Each structure stands twice: as C-alpha cells, then as structure tokens.
C-alpha cells in the first residue's frame, strides 16, 4: 500500500486522508457504517467489517443479500452501475476508497477482481495475461515473458497452455478460462484479490483446481470470495461473513461460524434451512 | 387448441414461408440474370470489322494479322458495293431517250409555228375562249412529247433524269417566249393575247414534267434513305468523307453485329420516303425497300447488301476488356466506362474516409459515454430521423449548403459529392457501430476496467477490437449504399459526359459516376437504343461493385471472428 500512497503523493494529491487511521496494520480493508444504495433501494446496510491481511475471507448469504454489491465496492466496480451511491466509510489501509480525489484506476490495479463468468478478452492467451501489464507501460519483451510465465504458473495453467500462448483465449475450457482470468489479475501484482462467485459457472473438477489455487495464493494475497457454496466457503476461507438482506449478520473465523454460529439466522442458513 | 389444428397450422406456416422464400429467390434470379447476361454482352460480343478499325484509330490498339485480313476482305466486298452505287448515281443509259425528248420539244414548237394562221385566228377570240382553245390545241400538239416522256421515265434512274426535267422546264419557258414572238410577228395582236399564248401553250407539258419530278423526288428520297442506312452500317466510303464527318459515330459503321443487324432490318430493309399528301403537305412514310425498289438498280444494291452482309462486316466473336479501362468516345457509343468506374470509386472511398471516423466516434460516444439521458436520447432520435431523410433531400442540401453557402468547391466536385454521401450514410454507420459496440459483452468492459484500464484504454484495447468485425460489416455495407446512390450526387458531383479525373482534381472537378450515368444514358441519350449494351454493362458493373463490397463484408467478418476464436 505504501506504493499507492507514494504514487498518489507523486501526483500531488494531498489531504487525502480526512479520517484517522482506524485499524491496525493487520486489517487491509475496513468498512465502517458502510451502506450502498441503488437509487432509493438500500442494498447494503451499515456494514462494519475488517478483512485480515493475507487471509481468505468468504462472504456468504442468500441471493440478493448485497454480498456481491459489497465486494464490488472494494474496487469501485459499482461505479459502472448508474444511480449507485454509498454512505459511510470504506477504507483500504487507511485510505478512503470513496474519496472524490482517489485515482480509481490506480485502486483497481491494487485490487484485482475475478468475475462470476470467465471473461477472457478475445485476444491470445499471452495478450490476455500481458494486458494489465501493458496498460502501465511497455516493459522489455523478456521481462514481459517472465511476468506472463510466472502468472500462468501461479494459476496452474502454464503446463496446459505453454505451447499455444499465441492462440485465442476463447478456445480454452471454462475452468482454464477462469484460471486465465486469475493469472491476468495476478500479472499486475495486486494486494487484494476479489472473487465474485468464481466457480459458479464451472464443473466440480475445475472448481477443485480453483479452490486449490486459492489455498496456494492465501498468505500472499488478501482474498475476498463471494460464494453460494457453503462447503466451498468452509474449505477455502479463514474468515466468513454472513450477509442477510443487506445486513452483515455475523463475521468471524470460518471454523467458529460453521461449527458454532452465534446468530440463529446464520445457523439456519448454513444448515440449509433457507437460502 | 387441438393437437391436429396445431399440426395443420404448423405445416401451413412452414409451407407459406417456403413459398415466400421461393418467390423471393426467383425474383432475385429473374432480376439479376437478365442484367448479368445483357451486361456481359457489353464486353463479350460479336464484333464487326468496324470495331477493330475504331480501336486501332482512336484508342491505340494494334491490329492483329487476322484483323488486317478481315479489313482487307471487307474492303473488297465494299468496293463492289460502292461501284454499284456509283454506276447508279451517274448512269448514262437513259441519255438516248432523253435526246429524243429534246428533239420532240423543238419539233413540236416548229410544227406549231407552221400552224401560224390557225393560232392567229384563235388569238383573235375573246380571252376566255382563247385560253381554252389554246389548251386544246396544245394537248394535241404535245401528245408525242408526252408519250416519249412516259417511255423515258420508265427506264430512267434518278439523278440524271431529274436534272433533265429541270432543264426541260427551263427550256420550255424560253422556247415559249420565242415561239410567241414568232407567231405574233407582223400581226396586230394584243400583248395580253400573246402572253396567254405563251403561258397556255406549255401548261400541259409543264404539268407533265412536274408530276414526273414529284415521282422522282419520292424515288430519290427513298434511295437516299437506303444509302444513308448503308453508310450507317458500314461507315463512309473514303478517308476524305470520313474526315469531313464531325461525330465519331458518323466516321465508323456499326461495331456490333446485333446493332448492325438492327440497322439492316430497320434502316436499310425499310426506308423513309417523302410523299406529298393530298393537302399538299410533304409527309414521311416508311415502306419495305424490297417492295418499293423491286428489280431496279437500288433493289439490286439492297440485295447485294443483304446477301454479302457477312462479307461487308466480317462478324467475329471478341472480348473487349477495354470496356472497363477505356474512356468513352462520342457519348458512350464507342469505348468503355472507365471514368464512371473511377468516379464511383472516388466518391465511395472519399465518402468512407469522411464518414467512417465520424460515425465510429459518434457510436463510441452513444454507446460508452452518453448513457440513456435525455440529451443522448434526443441525439439518437436525430440520427434516426436523419436516416429517414430521402436521398434527394441530401442532394439538395449538398448543393444549397456545401456548394452554395460554405463553398467547398466552385461548383460540382467529387469532394462535395463525397461529403453529401458521407452525410447520407453517417446515420447508418452510427447505428450499426453503436449496435456492434453494445453487443460486446459487459464482462469485457468489467474485465478491462478491473485490471486498471482507463475508460479510453478499455475502449481502444478491448471493446473496439471485439466489436470490429460487425462494425466493419456495417461500414462496408454502407459503402455499397454510397456507391449505388444517385440522387445525392446529381446536384453535387455527377456530370454526364467527361473523362476520368486525376486524384488531384477531386476538390475541383465533377466526375461521371455509374449510377448517374446509367440514368443518363438510358433516358437522356439521343441514341439510347444504340447503347443498350453500355446501359446493361454499367448496371452489371455497379451490381458487381455492390455485391463485391457486401461479400467482402461477410468474408471479413467471418475471417475476423475466426481469428478471434482460434488464433
């Protein structure tokens, strides 16, 4: 995060921090009374949460409970939705993500995102991975090759595609495409990785690969994953947040939430009584 | 609904759609096929020897050995024809009876002088009785003359006889003068009586000659009409006559066999003759030459032309690729359509250069920036309205605004026409490009933005490339529309006659262009029926250009989409 601060300083943006640093260095993302509105509709209601550095946090809850909306606020993807506005504070390492002078483009380079449906660009596999890197400048070819290889290795795709890097990414299978999207996000070296139901469009085998991948990446990246699959949440995450009708009902260590939930609604949800 | 009813309705609908497809298919084939067949005839046809003559003398084509051989053969056949015509026009075979007529004239006068006393007694009668008596006497006196004239007319052949008739008339007048002097010499006869004698004595032969002349004028006009047809068919006789002709079409015969045959059947086998109607007004009448001339010399000439038609013209199949690369000569009767093709090319490409960037930019604005606000929707409505404006209105706008108001050029120019065409196709381009951009999945935008791309870089790097195939398709199809539009260029760029212009002239010069010249050559051309092959050739060329553009649009789309899928 220091680089983000430094870069912003370089851009002569001052007085960015209006509010005091509230959290310890262990927390990357903190939300305080954070609400999201779509027009008049309040989709996320006064959420207070803190995501731990280097941990995997899963966000669960029934459809329409605001978990995706919350996730997409972290890299300001909701800006694309007309009529979306927020109240409260959403901070990343002490920086207000909704400050009006925040460089959104810079934020998104720090907070990578993987979407529900694999969305590789209609370009070659190589160009897909290199896309984010090239946005920032033109590194030498050898360095770019290195970045592409490392990213693909990390996402476990390298061995499958190393012979056809120049062929179109649309020719890959769904699971491969999703791992390519992860590699693409990793190539620009973000600090936080947001995953919006990354396995919902994939078969069980590909899902297992992605879950393994998440486990490998945890520790290095702070990961937030939205999922409908409770087993998945239990398997991959360190912390779990349960959203219900826009309200954060319960947040805590995954083992505790799944074995001994404090809230009755949480209990009902994870035991499958509704949702 | 019952199951059986549904099945019947289903099959009825299927049958209906198949029938309509069939009708559309046959309509397209029935429409394109005749144009294609006739259009191909513009550059693959049975040519006559005149075709090669024209090409070698006007467009620097070289004559092959077989061409020279053909010209030699046709010249030999023509030589005989010209000899026949010559001998007819200067025929002397009727000179013998003509001399006899002259002799008879003199002897008739002499005889009458011998009857001096009788005539004198007639002249002493009252004026009305006098004239009547003179006429009666004259009819008797001139009988031999009239018979000889009849004989001569039967054997006479035109020019010389006509000349002779005029001469006889003149001589009759002067002889009558002398004759009247002679009769009245020494006698006391009034001036009036003498004049009466002079006039009335020759009334009968003069009327005979007049009738004769009229008959000959008709015969002559018939002959000249046929001769004109022959010259139209095979061209003028000598180099000198050729040089005297002003128009190229008069310097050569028919270059195409089909038109040559038409000339033979319409202008040679049928002739116009000048007849005097009952009211005394000359009228033109068309009759069959064969029936009219019968076995006379012109009839023989006609027979010769019909019999030796192939030798005179040496028809042979030829391919004339110059139709697409040569300039037209003498209002498209000769040569090719190169300037029209080039003009269409200039207009279309220039229109594209102007319209494509503007259209793409506007489409990007509408699809990526404008959203659904009130102003954006108003602008969209404006674009839609613009798309519905009739093309002739665009043409008028081009003239009134581009040329007359802001003066992009002094008059019609390729540039002004291109701008007008660009305006015409702009709405279509905006529409198709906007639709293509909207069809790009939103996940591409999210993906690009999520990787830290700015809006502009997401558009350039991901969205535009993804939308490119269908955008190109729309643009190329608009190009086809621009190539075929007539109305916008009438006032702004098109000229009916003209040569190919250079690239540097597009800002100042108008140009011929296919759509306009098709109209022009079909409806404004003075010899429209003689350039039918050019009309169809142009139509086919235009159809091919548009078809080529549309096919290449399909091809490019398929290619780009494949490239995206399995690069």
State the helix count of chain A: 11
Order of helices and strands of chain A: HEEEHEEHEHHHHEHEHEEHH
Number of domains of chain B: 4
- Integer count of domains of chain A: 1
Class of the largest domain in chain B, according to the CATH hierarchy?
Answer: Mainly Alpha
**Oligomer state of the chains in this structure:** heterodimer
Please report the distance between the alpha carbons of the first and last residues of chain A.
37 Å
Total count of helical runs of at least 4 residues of chain B: 24
Report the strand count of chain B: 6
CATH homologous superfamily identity of chain A: P-loop containing nucleotide triphosphate hydrolases
Q: Tell me the span between the first and last alpha carbons of chain B.
A: 51 Å
Characterize the biggest β-sheet of chain A.
6 strands, mixed
CATH class of chain A: Alpha Beta
Query: Which pair has the most extensive contact?
Result: A-B, 31 and 25 residues
The average pLDDT of chain B is: 87
Task: Give the low-pLDDT segments of chain A.
Answer: 8-23
- Low-pLDDT sequence parts of chain B: none
CA-based gyration radius of chain A: 19 Å
Beta strand % of chain A: 15-25%
Report what the structure shows:
The complex is a heterodimer of chains A (275) and B (567). Chain A has 275 residues and is α/β, with parallel strands linked by helices. Chain A has a 6-stranded mixed sheet, sandwiched between helices. Chain A starts with a helix and ends in a 5-residue tail after the last helix. About 6% of the residues of chain A have low confidence. Chain B has 4 domains: 38 residues; 138 residues, no CATH class; 120 residues, no CATH class; 232 residues, MetI-like fold (Orthogonal Bundle). In chain B, the strands form 3 sheets. A two-stranded antiparallel sheet of chain B has the order 1-4. Chain B is elongated and about 135 Å long. The longest helix of chain B is centred in the middle third of the chain and has 44 residues. Chain B has 24 helices and 6 strands. Chain B has 567 residues and is mainly alpha-helical. The interface between A and B is medium-sized, with 31 and 25 residues.
């Amino acid at each position: 995060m220091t680089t983000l601060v430094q870069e912003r300083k370089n851009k002569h943006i001052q007085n960015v921090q209006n509010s005091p640093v509230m959290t310890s260095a262990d927390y990357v993302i903190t939300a305080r009374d954070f609400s999201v509105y779509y027009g008049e509709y309040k989709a996320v209601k006064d959420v207070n949460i803190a995501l731990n550095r280097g941990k995997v946090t899963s966000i669960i809850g029934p459809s329409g409970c605001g978990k995706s909306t919350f996730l997409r606020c972290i890299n300001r993807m909701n800006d694309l939705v007309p009529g979306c506005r927020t109240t409260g504070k959403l901070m990343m390492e002490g920086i207000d993500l909704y400050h009006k002078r925040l460089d959104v483009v810079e934020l998104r380079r720090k907070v990578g995102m993987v979407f529900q449906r694999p969305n590789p660009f209609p370009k070659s596999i190589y160009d897909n991975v290199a896309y984010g890197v090239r946005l920032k400048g033109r590194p030498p070819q050898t360095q770019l090759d290195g970045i592409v290889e490392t990213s693909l290795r990390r996402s476990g795709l390298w061995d499958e595609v190393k012979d056809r890097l120049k062929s179109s990414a649309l020719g890959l299978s769904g699971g491969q495409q999703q791992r390519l999207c992860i590699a693409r996000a990793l190539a620009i070296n973000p600090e936080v990785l947001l995953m919006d139901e990354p396995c919902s469009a994939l078969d069980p085998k590909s899902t297992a690969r992605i879950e393994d991948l998440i486990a490998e990446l945890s520790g290095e990246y702070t990961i937030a994953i939205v999922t409908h699959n409770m087993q998945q949440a239990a398997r991959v995450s360190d912390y779990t947040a349960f959203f219900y009708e826009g309200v954060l009902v319960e947040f805590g260590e995954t083992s505790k939430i799944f074995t001994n939930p404090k809230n009755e609604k949480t209990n009902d949800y994870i035991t499958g009584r509704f949702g | 609904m019952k199951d059986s009813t549904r099945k019947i309705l289903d099959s009825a609908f299927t049958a209906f759609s198949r029938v309509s497809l069939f009708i559309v298919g046959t309509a397209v084939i029935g429409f394109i096929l005749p144009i294609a067949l006739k259009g191909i005839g513009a550059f693959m046809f049975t040519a006559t020897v005149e075709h090669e003559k024209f090409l070698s003398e006007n467009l620097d084509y070289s004559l092959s050995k077989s061409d020279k051989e053909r010209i030699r053969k046709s010249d030999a056949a023509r030589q005989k024809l010209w000899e026949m015509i010559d001998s007819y026009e200067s025929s002397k075979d009727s000179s013998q009876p003509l001399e006899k007529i002259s002799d008879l004239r003199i002897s008739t006068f002499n005889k009458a002088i011998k009857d001096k006393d009788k005539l004198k007694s007639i002249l002493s009668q009252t004026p009305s009785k006098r004239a009547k008596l003179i006429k009666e006497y004259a009819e008797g006196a001139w009988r031999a003359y009239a018979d000889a004239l009849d004989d001569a007319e039967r054997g006479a052949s035109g020019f010389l006889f006509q000349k002779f008739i005029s001469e006889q008339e003149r001589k009759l007048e002067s002889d009558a003068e002398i004759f009247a002097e002679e009769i009245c010499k020494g006698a006391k006869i009034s001036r009036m009586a003498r004049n009466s004698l002079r006039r009335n004595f020759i009334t009968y032969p003069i009327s005979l000659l007049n009738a004769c002349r009229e008959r000959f004028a008709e015969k002559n006009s018939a002959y000249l009409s046929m001769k004109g047809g022959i010259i139209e068919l095979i061209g003028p006789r000598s180099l000198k006559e050729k040089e005297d002709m002003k128009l190229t079409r008069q310097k050569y015969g028919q270059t195409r066999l089909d038109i040559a045959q038409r000339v033979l059947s319409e202008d040679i086998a049928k002739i116009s003759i000048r007849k005097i109607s009952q009211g005394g007004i000359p009228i033109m009448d068309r009759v069959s030459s064969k029936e009219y001339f019968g076995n006379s010399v012109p009839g023989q000439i006609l027979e010769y032309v019909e019999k030796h038609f192939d030798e005179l013209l040496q028809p042979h199949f030829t391919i004339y690729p110059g139709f697409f690369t040569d300039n037209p000569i003498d209002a498209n009767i000769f040569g090719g359509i190169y300037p029209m093709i080039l003009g269409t090319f200039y207009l279309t490409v220039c229109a594209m250069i102007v319209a494509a960037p503007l259209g793409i930019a506007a489409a990007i604005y509408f699809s990526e920036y404008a959203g659904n606000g009130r102003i954006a929707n108003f602008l969209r409505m404006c674009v839609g309205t613009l798309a519905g404006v009739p093309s002739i209105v665009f043409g008028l706008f081009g003239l009134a605004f581009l040329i007359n108001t802001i003066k992009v050029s002094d008059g019609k120019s390729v540039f002004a026409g291109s701008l007008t065409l660009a305006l015409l196709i702009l709405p279509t381009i905006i529409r198709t490009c906007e639709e293509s951009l909207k069809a790009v999945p939103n996940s591409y935008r999210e993906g690009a933005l999520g990787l830290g791309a700015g809006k502009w870089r997401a558009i350039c790097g991901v969205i535009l490339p993804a939308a490119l195939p269908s955008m190109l398709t729309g643009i190329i199809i608009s190009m086809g529309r621009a190539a075929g539009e007539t109305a916008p260029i009438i006032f702004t760029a098109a000229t009916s006659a003209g040569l190919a212009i250079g690239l540097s002239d597009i800002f100042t010069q108008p140009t011929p262009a296919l759509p306009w010249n098709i109209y022009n050559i079909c409806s404004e051309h003075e010899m429209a029926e003689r350039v039918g092959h050019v009309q169809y050739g142009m139509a086919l060329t235009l159809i091919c250009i548009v078809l080529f553009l549309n096919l290449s649009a399909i091809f490019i789309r398929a290619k780009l989409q494949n490239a995206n899928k399995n690069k």
